[in-house]
Design brief:
- By secondary structure, the protein is mainly alpha-helical.
- It has two domains: about 110 residues, no CATH class; about 70 residues, no CATH class.
- The protein contains nine helices and no strands.
- It starts with 8 loop residues before the first helix and ends in a 24-residue tail after the last helix.
């Protein structure tokens, strides 16, 4: 799942990954217009229509993937089809180059990926959970300015992955990394996978 970041395109062209779009990113294009002081009934209506889809998703959160897919087919698909028809109609009315045209184009140009969640109950309609995990690093980079080099960037990405993976697995990242780094010098290389966050278990001596 991704937004319209062009760096992802080569991955999908290989044919080994299926792209899913994030509806929150689509909604944000309309929200930004209103936040910037642009009075736009079209943006308000788009947000309202998308809101119904998010509401259905919230009700289906505790359902199994198969049940979630059935709910989406029954309740969401029709609303989404009407949203698509409405957006296409509005796009013929709004002027090219305007902010609302750009917001509509974002959704229309990515319509297939944005609807991938309808076909698979395991796919979310948005990527907020990952965005929240990345936010501390996105905010931090403003202070760090640069990673220093390409190698520094790769190291930062590795550390970020380990920290957030540890958190997702229910570990205290500091405790996990401190223990892993203390074990590394004597840990058998053939068993290095045992130190990954999803397999790591704190020894009794660690908090």
């Amino acid at each position: 799942m991704c937004d319209d970041y062009k760096g992802c395109e080569p991955v999908f062209k290989l044919g080994k990954r299926v792209e899913a779009g994030c509806l929150v990113h689509a909604r944000r294009k309309f929200e930004e217009l209103l936040e910037n002081g642009h009075a736009s009934p079209v943006a308000e209506e788009a947000i309202r229509r998308l809101g119904w889809i998010f509401w259905i998703e919230k009700q289906a959160r505790a359902a199994s993937p198969a049940e979630r897919r059935a709910i989406r087919q029954e309740q969401t698909r029709g609303r989404r089809d009407k949203l698509h028809e409405w957006l296409r109609t509005e796009r013929t009315i709004v002027p090219d180059g305007s902010g609302i045209a750009a917001a509509i184009d974002y959704s229309l140009n990515r319509w297939a990926p944005l609807g991938r969640f309808l076909e698979d109950g395991n796919v979310n309609c948005h990527n907020n959970h990952l965005g929240n995990l990345m936010r501390p690093w996105a905010m931090g980079r403003k202070a760090w300015l640069f990673a220093g080099s390409e190698l520094g960037g790769k190291r930062a990405a590795t550390v970020m992955s380990l920290v957030q993976s540890a958190r997702l697995c229910g570990h205290d990242p500091w405790v996990c990394l401190r223990d892993v780094l203390s074990r590394l010098p004597t840990h058998p290389a053939r068993d290095i996978d045992a130190l990954l966050p999803h397999r790591w278990a704190p020894p009794r001596s660690v908090g």
